[in-house]
Specification:
The protein contains 13 helices and nine strands. With 347 residues, it is of the alpha+beta class. Helix content is 45%, strand content 16%. Helix 9 packs across helix 11 (296-309). The model has no long low-confidence stretch (mean pLDDT 92). The protein has helices spanning 61-78, 84-93, 98-104, 111-117, 123-133, 136-145, 152-181, 200-213, 219-237, 258-261, 296-309, 314-322, 325-328; strands at residues 5-14, 19-34, 37-47, 57-58, 217-218, 246-249, 252-255, 268-271, 281-284. The longest helix has 30 residues, at 152-181. The strands form three sheets. A four-stranded antiparallel beta sheet has the order 1-2-3-4, covered by helices on one side. A three-stranded antiparallel beta sheet has the order 5-9-8.
Length: 347
Amino acid sequence: MNTSTLIRKIHIDCPLCDKAHEVEERTRFATITLKGEEVTYEERFYFCANAPADENEFETGSMANANLLNARNADRIEHGLLTSDEIVAIRENYGLSQVDLARLLGWGEATISRYESKAIQDEAYDTMLRLIKDNPLMALEFLKKTAAKFSNMKRAEIRTKIVEKLDSYGKEYLTRQAFAGEYVAFEELSEANGFTTLNIDKIEAVISYIAENVSNLFKVKLMKMLWYVDALSFKLNDHAVTGLVYRHKPMGALPVGHYSLMNLENLDVREEESSKYDSMLHIYPTKGMDYSILSDGEKTIVDRVIKKFKNYKAQEIIDYMHEEKAYIETKSGDIIPFSLAKEIRDF
C-alpha cells in the first residue's frame, strides 16, 4: 500500500472479506491520466486488514465519483480553471439553479450540471464564469442579453437576486478589485505565482483559518506563514494554494499588494498596539467564514504550517526565513520564484 493518511475507522460490511468489521478510511496522493496528461490528486479509499496484501483496498461508487471529481479539479487547478466547487459557489452566490445559470450565460441547460459533476470547462467558458464571479453588474448585463430565455416572473426573480447582491457588494467589490489590480502583471501561470491564479476567496479563508488557530496574529508573522503555506504546497504538489506572488523584503517574504490585501472586506483586521514589526495590524478570524473552499489537502498543509510556527514570535519567524534558500538566493525587491520553495526546511 502506498503512503497514506488515516482519516477515520468505520464499521461496515466489508466486500473484500465478507465480514462486518471496522475498516480504515484513508487518503493519499494518486496519479491519473486525463486528456493525455498525468494529474496528481487526493484520493480516498477503504483499507481492510483482513484481506491479502495485494487485495486489501476498495472504494464505494460514491467514493470513486468523488475521487474522479478531485482528479478533474486538480487538472483544473493545473490549467488555471475554476474548480467544480468554485462553479457551485458562483451559482449559489446568486441563488440560481444549474439550469438558471446556464440560461443566464446563454449555454445549454445541462452545461452547468456537467461542469459541477464531471466535465472540465474550456477557457472561453471559464472566462465567462469569471466575468460574473465577482461582478454582479456583469451578471445583470448577461440577464439583459438572455432575457428571452426566462419567463417574466423568473426573469424578475433573478434580477431581484442580482440587484440584492449588487447592493450588498459595495465596498467588498471595490477592495477586491483594488487588490486584484495589483496582480495584472501576474495573470499568466508561472514560477512567480506558483502556477496558481490569484484566488481571493482562498486567501481570505487561509488567513481566517490561521487566525483561528494562532493567537495574537499580526501582519508580519501572517505574511511569512502565507508564504510557507504556498511554499509547502508547491513543494508537495507543484502548485501554490493562493496565487499570491512574494517579494524578497528585509523582513522576509511579502506578498505583492499586501496593503490592499489587508483591506479586503472579508478579513477582520484591526489596528492595535504591538511590536515594531507588526505595524499594529492584528488579524482575527472572520465570523462565518466558509472554509469549504479549501480542500482537505490544503487544510492539512495550513495545519502543518500552523503547527510549525504557532508559537514563533515575529522576529523568530523572520530569522527562520532568512535562512531559507529561497531568501538567500534572491535579492531585495526580487520576486521569490517558487522553484526555490522545493528546498524549504523541516517540513
